[in-house]
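Subject: Signal transduction histidine-protein kinase/phosphatase MprB

B.,
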Amino acid sequence: MRRWFGTLAGRTTAVIAAVATVAVVLAGLLAAQLVNATAVDEAKKYLAVEADSLSKQSNLGSLQDLRADLLTHGARLAAIGPDGRVTGGGARLVDAKTVADVLAGKAVSKTVDGPQNTVVLEARPLAAGGGVVLAQPVSEIRAAAAPLLSRMLIALAVCLVFSIVAGGLLAQWLSRPLVRTAQSAHRLAAGERAVPVAPGGPAEVVEVSQALAALDAALRTSEGRQREFLLSISHEIRTPLTALRGYAEALADGVVSGAEVSGVGRTLVAETNRLDRFVRDLLELARLESDDFRVELQPVDASLILRESWQAWQAVCVQNGIAARLELPSGALRVRSDGQRLRQVVDGLLENALRVTPEGSPVVLAANVSGSGLTVEVRDGGPGLTEADAAVAFERGALFARYSGARPVGSGLGLSIAARIVQRLGGRISVRTAPEGGAAFVVELPGI
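Prediction pasted inline below.
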C-alpha cells in the first residue's frame, strides 16, 4: 500500500480524494446554513401572509377555529385584547414591546431572542381593537428542514465517493502512458533502438511520447552515421596498408634496389602519413562526436596529388601484371578542394579498378581541365558495368551483393564513400564504359 501511494497514480488519487473531501465538507456546511436560512425566511413569509389574513377577520373569538387547520405545521397563534391582555397558545412568545406596538396600530415582523429559544414573530393590529400574533421557534423551523438537509448530505456523500473513484480512474489514465513512456526510455538508455512508444493520455503526455520517439530516431540516425563513418575509415585504412605491403614485399623480394630504394622510401613515408591522418580522423570522431569526414576546401595542385596516388599503387600494378598508364597534362592542375579527401577518392577508385582488372589489361588514371573545372578519370580493362549496374554503382553494397562470388569484389563501401566525398567537395561522380573495355569512373570538380 505504501508503495502504491508513492506512485503518480496513488498520489493523484490521494490528492483528488483530499480535495473532494474538503470540498464536500465545505459544501455540506454551506448547504446547512443555506437550508436553515431559507427555511427561516420561508417561515417568516408564511407567518406574514397568515397574519395579514387573520388581521382582516372581524370576529376575534372565531380566529382559532378558522385558522387552526393552517397552523398545524408548528406556528403558535395568540390574540391581543384591547386592554393589552395576551391569550392563546403563543401568548408566552409575545413580549411587551410587541403588545405596545400592536395596540399603537403597528404591524410587527421580527425575530425575538428568548431565554431558551429564538422566535420568528409576526403581529398585526385588528380594526376592532387589539391584534393577532403568529410566532414559531427557530429550532422547530430548522427541525422541519432537517430531512431535506439529510438528503442533501447523503447526495454530497455519494458525490464524494464518486469523485474518489473517478479520481482513481483519472490517475490511472494519466499515469499509464507515463509508465509506458518511462519503460521505453529505460530501454533506450539500455542501448535498444527502434523502441515503440505507444501514444495516449492527455496532450502533454502525447507530446512527451512524440519527443521520445523523435529522440529514438535521432539516436538511430546518429549512431548509424557513426557506424558508417567507422566502416568508411576502416575501409580507407586498407588502401595505404595495401601500398605499404606491396612495397615492403618488393623490398623483401629484392625487386627494388639501388636508386629506386629512396623513391620507395618516400612513398612508404607518404603512405604512413596517410595512415596517421586516418587515425587522426578517428580521434576527431571521439573528441568532437563527428559522424562524417572533415572537409577543408582550399586551393590545391591536383596533379601532385594524382601523381602521389599513382606512385603509391605502382607496386600493386607490378605484382598483378597490370599495364598501368598515367595521363596528365603538363603543368599544375589548380582546383579548390581538400587534398587529403581528393587523394582518398582517387585511391578508392584505383583500388576498385585494380581489383577487377585481369593480368595484362590496362588501368588508366587521367585528368584534364574542362571548362572552369577539373575532370579526373579512372579507367580499367575489367569486365565493366551494365546500365543496371551503373544505376546502383554508388549505393553501398549494391555491386557487392550483385557480384559476390562471381567476380572479385571489395567490402561494398568504396564507391559509396567516394561518391559521398565528391559530393562534399562540391563535385559529381559518374560511371560509363571505358575505351579500354571496362568501366570509367569520372569525377568532375569545380575550379578555383
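The radius of gyration is 52 Å.

T.
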